[in-house]
Amino acid sequence: MSEHDSPATTHFGYREVPVAEKQKLVGEVFSSVAGKYDVMNDLMSFGIHRLWKRHFVATSGIRKGDRVLDLAGGTGDIAALLLPRVGEAGEVVVADINAEMLHAGRDRLLDRGLLQGLRWAQVNAEALPFPDASFDAVTIAFGLRNVTDKEQALREMQRVLKPGGRVLILEFSKVNQHWLQPLYDFHSFQVLPRIGKLVAHDEDSYRYLAESIRKHPDQATLKSMMEAAGFRNVQVRNLSAGIVAIHRGYKI
Question: Domains in the chain, start-ordered, CATH in brackets?
Answer without folding.
Answer: 9-16+33-177+205-250 (3.40.50.150)
